[in-house]
């Protein structure tokens, strides 16, 4: 700045007067994120979006009817209790109580949140001190990282080990945990561990044996367990969804995360919930109240209706069958091409091995893709030349382990059957680009 008799004259550049917080950089929040790079505006207009995990079909009509009824009633258009509307808490108790083998207390063991993500964020706010470490299995849901670092936490990464090359038909169960490696990652600063099952993006449904081993470590080192189970309604092939909170001694240290968006094809509603002991829910309520105060009131009523009527309508059984059909459309397309992929036993994502995709190195890639992993270039090439978008999996890893993810692209099958069939037809054009 230049000095004058009148004081300080600011320079002409006023674009960065106030420095931003370092936590934005630590949480990779400032980097051009993968969702922006592979958004519809950057891809061909007719590109089929199998990248982002939102549905292109409506929620069930009986659920949207309940939303409309709530909008036409006075009370649901105003603030709900920060714990959540009582009807939804009662519905969560009725639906999930038997699954936890507990008579859930709607006043102290259930918290409605503004989507599962805000619920998780509030847990971090409530329990992390500066420098506390959070164990995250890789690949990880990308929101975990900024949510941890924004709250003073330090992520510690433990990779799931991908299937052996010798496996020709790997499943998500072939992505394995090295328990000794997990144990070595624990330090005196470890505070929490995140267990995402069914897993995004692998589709892994953690086995009881794996969860028991994780639970033993959590007990030994006194860790809080965040069980991210938002895909609990999408478990295929007769696999058992085991809730880690149900294992001996684990209820007292586990918070389980759920989502109406995933359950009822309503991701934009931003209605989630947490289930756990009072010792976890009450501090989290204190944080959530100051972050959002309360969640969307009329859509809480609709989510309640969904849970209340789900059994009567056999909704989740029917939905699971529909998703299995969608999954099979994509896997058949990959089988026809002779491409290796991870057969998902949960969630609505398929990891395709893209190491055989041979694209020209001089292809006109944008700067946002250059300098990133090979999977970024492969996914960009497939989106532009084949007309189907996906998400490069190295985005879900730390820099040290990103090479593991570079072999894969994540395709979402939470789309209608016609869209998936059109995508399957387009995939056949990939044949000429395979090594």
UniProtKB/TrEMBL annotation:
Does the UniProt entry include the keyword Hydrolase?
no
Name the chain's protein: Aminotransferase class I/classII large domain-containing protein
Q: Which PANTHER family does this entry report, sorted A to Z?
A: FI04487P
Superkingdom in the source lineage: Eukaryota
Q: Which organism is it from?
A: Psilocybe cyanescens
- Indicate the family of this protein: Belongs to the class-I pyridoxal-phosphate-dependent aminotransferase family.
Alphabetic keyword roster: Aminotransferase, Pyridoxal phosphate, Transferase
Q: Where are the transmembrane segments?
A: none
């Amino acid at each position: 700045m230049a000095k004058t008799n009148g004081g300080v004259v600011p320079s002409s550049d006023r674009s960065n007067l106030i420095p931003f917080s370092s936590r934005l950089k630590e949480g990779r929040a400032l980097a051009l994120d993968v969702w922006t790079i592979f958004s519809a505006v950057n891809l061909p207009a007719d590109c089929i979006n199998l990248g982002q995990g939102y549905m292109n079909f409506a929620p069930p009509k009986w659920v949207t009817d309940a939303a409309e009824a709530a909008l036409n009633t006075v009370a649901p258009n105003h603030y709900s209790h920060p714990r959540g509307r009582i009807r939804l808490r009662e519905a969560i108790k009725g639906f999930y109580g038997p699954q936890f083998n507990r008579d859930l207390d709607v006043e102290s063991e259930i918290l409605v949140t503004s989507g599962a993500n805000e619920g998780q964020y509030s847990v971090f706010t409530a329990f992390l001190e500066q420098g506390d470490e959070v164990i995250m299995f890789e690949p990880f849901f990308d929101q975990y990282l900024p949510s941890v670092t924004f709250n003073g936490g330090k992520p510690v990464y433990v990779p799931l080990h991908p299937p052996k090359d010798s496996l020709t038909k790997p499943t998500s169960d072939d992505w394995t945990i090295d328990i000794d490696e997990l144990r070595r990652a624990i330090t005196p600063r470890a505070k929490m561990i995140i267990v995402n099952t069914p897993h995004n993006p692998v589709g892994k449904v953690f086995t009881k044996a794996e969860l028991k081993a994780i639970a033993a470590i959590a007990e030994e080192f006194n860790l809080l367990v965040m069980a991210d189970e938002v895909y609990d309604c999408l478990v295929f092939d007769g696999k058992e969804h085991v809730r880690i909170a149900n294992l001996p001694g684990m209820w007292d240290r586990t918070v389980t995360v759920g989502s109406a968006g995933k359950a009822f094809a309503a991701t934009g509603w931003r209605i989630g919930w947490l289930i756990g002991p009072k010792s976890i829910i009450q501090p989290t309520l204190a944080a959530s109240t100051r972050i959002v105060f309360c969640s969307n009131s009329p859509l809480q009523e609709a989510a309640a209706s969904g849970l209340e009527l789900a059994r009567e309508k056999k909704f989740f059984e029917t939905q699971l069958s529909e998703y299995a059909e969608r999954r099979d459309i994509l896997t058949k397309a990959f089988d026809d091409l002779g491409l290796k992929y991870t057969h998902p036993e949960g969630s609505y994502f398929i990891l395709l091995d893209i190491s055989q995709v041979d694209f020209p190195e001089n292809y006109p890639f944008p700067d946002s893709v250059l300098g990133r992993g090979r999977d970024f270039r492969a996914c960009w090439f497939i989106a532009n030349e084949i007309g189907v978008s996906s998400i490069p999996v190295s985005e879900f890893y730390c820099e040290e382990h990103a090479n593991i993810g570079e072999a894969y692209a994540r395709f979402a099958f939470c789309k209608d059957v016609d869209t998936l069939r059109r995508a399957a037809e387009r995939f056949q054009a990939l044949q000429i680009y395979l090594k």
